[in-house]
């Protein structure tokens, strides 16, 4: 177990932790709950030429997912205008919910927020979602805003890392990090590709919020955890592993079957580079909060890191109950860890387009 003195910002190995603590966490999903069995039935109707592959829906590790629209919406074709209108309305509703809950969980008021960071990958809005949210919430007019787009499934962990850096630079301030993805809106029934069929088996909708508190010069001690270290790793020439193509009627999914092989070959050196740079080692963590992109990805990372089923249970249970919600998913695991009373050093890991890995070490 990693023995830290998080209140003074020093790790066991002497590396300085960020003077930032997790003050509050919240999650939310939209209203429409759908079972994986029902989704598989719909997929057979929409993609009859791929029906022989329907067994993959039963092997995802997913039982239920949540969508922002009723079932009939997904049986129709939609263009950019229709998708964007729904995205902006539904994303803002979820962002408002998690913002209010995270702030309440942190025991602060909206006027105490000094910076607002909002991440997404599944829709477009100009003005950006953070600006639109300002008109819904009584945040200070002087709040510093940072919209993030393009980090994909890695956006929850990467956004948390960037928000921690932001908070580190703002003594005495609170940073509100919000992330939302409505993956269901990216279903394009006119796309007959295997990648679309696979993505329809995995993705759901959700949002998460985290309040980070700068604790420089204070005793702190009232937060939910302390950020120890953050880091990224980029692998060149991997653009077609994951991402979007811009199609006439929406985002066209890029999802390569080579992803598990890439992780098997390249993840460990990247992870050990992050740990070594911060005076940490893998065996010192008491918990692992991995982005569950799917059962295959989760099992690949589990095997690579030599983890038990118990070690990845939180991530697997989030996948079971919500599917892959892209960026918020790892933060759902963080929320469950905190609610279950987890303590000690935890490692958050997620992946996204680029292709990239994102790491956050936190002492809960």
Structural account:
It is a single chain. By secondary structure, the chain is of the alpha+beta class. The chain has a single domain, classed as Thiolase/Chalcone synthase (Peroxisomal Thiolase, Chain A, domain 1), CATH 3.40.47.10. 33% of the residues lie in helices and 25% in strands. It has helices at residues 36-46, 55-58, 80-106, 129-134, 155-168, 194-200, 259-277, 295-305, 313-322, 329-339; strands at 20-28, 32-35, 64-67, 113-120, 144-149, 174-182, 205-214, 225-234, 242-247, 250-255, 287-290, 345-352, 356-363. It is globular.
The CATH superfamily is identified as Thiolase/Chalcone synthase
Name of the CATH first level: Alpha Beta
Order of helices and strands: EEHHEHEHEHEHEEEEHEHHHEE
The number of helices is: 10
CATH architecture classification: 3-Layer(aba) Sandwich
- Quote the average pLDDT: 93
Adjacency order of strands in the biggest sheet: 5-4-6-7-1-8-13-12-11
Helix content: 25-40%
CATH topology value: Peroxisomal Thiolase, Chain A, domain 1
* Biggest beta-sheet profile: 9 strands, mixed
Total domain units = 1
Shape: globular
For the record, give the distance between the C-alpha atoms at the N and C termini, rounded to a whole number: 12 Å
- Rg result: 20 Å
Strand content: 25-35%
Structural class by secondary-structure content: alpha+beta
* Strands, count: 13
Low-confidence stretches: 1-15
